[in-house]
Design goal:
177 residues, mainly alpha, Serine Threonine Protein Phosphatase 5, Tetratricopeptide repeat, 8 helices, 76% helix
């Protein structure tokens, strides 16, 4: 028996590296198809390649059964948020909030609330302290309040509660402006 040269974690890293280096230039794993697109999209999201993640999740959206579609749409909304495409992230999360329940709806509330807050902050940075910015902040507060009220245990790090405090501070600043 030959002893293993790599520990479990290193072995996983090497396998992941081999998979990534076997990708075609367009970002497709050999073989193509929906499973390939999902794996590429997920890896891209996890490694910060948000444009590729958005592209691959977008390609998947019309080709999945309803059982998989909600999870992929949620990941798509998250990729849009991370790519600073706040309006698109809000639009992608909307139907998940309206038509789902449980963890999908909870996560969609967190994504939409965060996207609304980030969109409002971008507007404030550009000097747009107006009714549209206030509406984004109030919508963000509503989403994240609902998230924390109905799904508090999912906010283990307290990041949504902390964001609510930032939103309140932004609203207070907006009120003084």
């Amino acid at each position: 028996m030959i002893p293993s040269i790599l520990s479990g974690g290193r072995r996983l890293a090497v396998v992941s590296l081999v998979l990534l280096t076997s990708c075609e230039a367009a970002g497709t794993l050999a073989g193509g198809g929906a499973q390939s697109d999902y794996l590429v999209a997920r890896q891209a999201l996890e490694t910060g390649n948000y444009d590729l993640a958005v592209q691959r999740y977008g390609r998947l959206m019309g080709s999945l059964d309803s059982g998989s579609a909600s999870r992929v749409q949620l990941e798509y909304a998250h990729a849009l948020l991370r790519a600073n495409r706040y309006d698109d992230a809000i639009a992608a999360a909307d139907p998940l909030i309206a038509g789902r329940d449980g963890s999908i709806q909870a996560s969609a509330l967190a994504v939409r609330g965060t996207a609304r807050h980030e969109a409002a902050r971008a507007r404030l940075t550009q000097g747009q302290a107006d009714a549209a910015t206030r509406a984004l902040l109030e919508g963000a507060r509503e989403d994240l309040t609902r998230f924390t009220r109905e799904n508090g245990p999912l906010d283990t790090a307290g990041s949504m509660r902390a964001r609510l405090q930032l939103i309140d501070a932004d609203l207070e600043t907006l009120g003084r402006g």
